[in-house]
Amino acid sequence: MTQSTTAVTDQGKVGTSHYDPKLVEILYDYDMERISKGELQDEIDYLKARAIREGRANE
Hints:
By secondary structure, the chain is mostly helical. Helix content is 49%, strand content 10%.
């Protein structure tokens, strides 16, 4: 089994082990734009609630 990870630093830089870094950056920027427009608020609220339920809210 192959495992891939993507990390986003505080500076917004994207690092990945198995994907094209430029593609990951484009997708990250697209998601950040959607978040800024409020388009992903339902998903964000759901993920926050799930993290709290699972005890991972501060990770």
